[in-house]
Amino acid sequence: MGRAIVRDPQAFLMNEPLSNLDAKLRVQMRTEVAELQSRLGTTTVYVTHDQTEAMTLGDRVAVMRAGEIQQVGPPQELYNEPKNLFVAGFIGSPAMNFVVASAEGDTLKLPFVDAPLTDDMREAIKDHDGSVLAGVRPGYFEDAALVEDDKDGVPFKAKIELIESLGSELFAHFASEQDPNQIDKTTTEAGLDELSGSSLDTIVARLDPASKIKRGDEAELWLDPSKILLFDPDRGKRLNTGNADANDDANDDENDDENADDGETSSGSERPDQSEDDSHGAGEADTDTPSKGTDRGTDRGSIRGA
Questions:
Q1: What does the DSSP 8-state code read for residue 283?
Q2: For the chain, the helix, strand and coil percentages under 3-state DSSP, each to the nearest 5
Q3: What dihedral angle (degrees, nearest 10) is formed by the CA atoms of 211, 212, 214, 220?
Q4: Are 249 and 243 in contact (CB under 8 A)?
Q5: Residue 262, Ramachandran bin (φ over 0: left; ψ between -120 and 50: alpha; else beta)
Q6: Is 207 left (phi over 0), alpha (psi -120 to 50) or beta?
Q7: Taking the model in full, what pTM does it have?
Q8: Contact 68, 259 (CB under 8 A)
């Protein structure tokens, strides 16, 4: 890096620079790379399989699969507004939970709970007579005992199979109660089978550390149904707006849909005079910020998801 820096290049390309470091040093170097890039003000294309590096370093993230761009945007947009099943399953840790869902009257029937069918959901599935895939992030759950009475949501019972305590949060695992064979074909076509951490028979819920739920409990959990995302069971494309906290304009650009068949992941941002076509290859991510005395932008962070 030192040899490259003294040449004052137009851009840096970093290909998995931290992959051989231990966990502690990797976190430290990630911070130093971000500070160095910010100080130099030089566009940086950062390639990595680690979504944490991409999400924390990149102003824009490009998610790719099999060499084709699936979606490009700010990290939070990809998290809140994934364009397809592959992006939804790749971004986020723990990964998004996926279950088969169907509409009956004003109810969205999930394997573990019946949720009210919102207008957004109803409009999204009006052309799907059969089942759809529902995506529920771990953070959409909570311990029902800790939820305020006036907060909208649906409580349900679940047998807790495993509790993971990380100090600042708890991860509760419970059975999805669905037949994995129902969505084997869909997950293969949409790329979910290529993602690590995506299980079809277990649901992961992120709970407040104040929760008293223990392994083996028949616990009462709570779900915010307004944030459930629905996906086409054939193509994996997202059908509804879902997440109420997401940006309203996240779906405005439909041009990316042409590339949403199979791809990887990458992250980045661009200068005002850049277009998304300037993305730097499969599995790369970049971020741009104005630099002093030059029109050169700043790129930091990209990820490649195999």
A1: T
A2: 25, 30, 45
A3: -70
A4: no
A5: beta
A6: beta
A7: 0.74
A8: yes
The closest alpha carbon to 265, from 72, 17, 20, belongs to 72
3-state DSSP call for residue 68? strand
The per-type count for the chain, helices as H runs and strands as E runs, is 7, 16
Half-sphere exposure of 132 (CA within 13 A, CB side): 28
Instruction: Give Dmax (Cα) for the chain.
Output: 66
Report the C-alpha gap between 302 and 13 in whole angstroms.
Answer: 10
3-state DSSP assignment of residue 136: strand
Which region, left, alpha or beta, applies to residue 283 given φ > 0 means left and ψ of -120 to 50 means alpha? Answer: left
Rg (CA), the chain: 21
Indicate the length of the chain as a whole number.
306
Which domains are seen in the chain, by residue range? 11-81+263-306 (3.40.50.300)
Contact 298, 290 (CB under 8 A): yes
> In angstroms, rounded to a whole number, what is the distance separating the alpha carbons of residues 148 and 169?
19
Q: In this structure, what token pair is assigned to residue 59?
A: 């102003």
- Written as six digits, the tokens of 186 are 């869909």
pLDDT tens string for the chain (306 positions)?
A: 788 888 889 999 999 999 899 989 999 999 999 998 889 888 888 888 888 899 989 888 898 888 899 999 999 999 999 999 889 988 988 999 998 888 888 899 999 999 998 888 988 888 777 788 899 999 999 999 999 988 889 999 999 999 999 999 999 999 987 766 665 655 666 566 676 656 678 899 999 999 999 999 999 999 999 999 999 888 889 998 775 444 444 344 444 444 434 444 444 433 334 434 433 333 444 444 434 434 433 333 444 443
In terms of Cβ atoms closer than 10 Å to its own Cβ (0-12, 13-18, 19+), residue 29 is middle
Report whether the peptide linkage leading into residue 94 is cis, meaning its omega lies within 30 degrees of zero. Answer: yes
Strand partners, 135: 98, 229
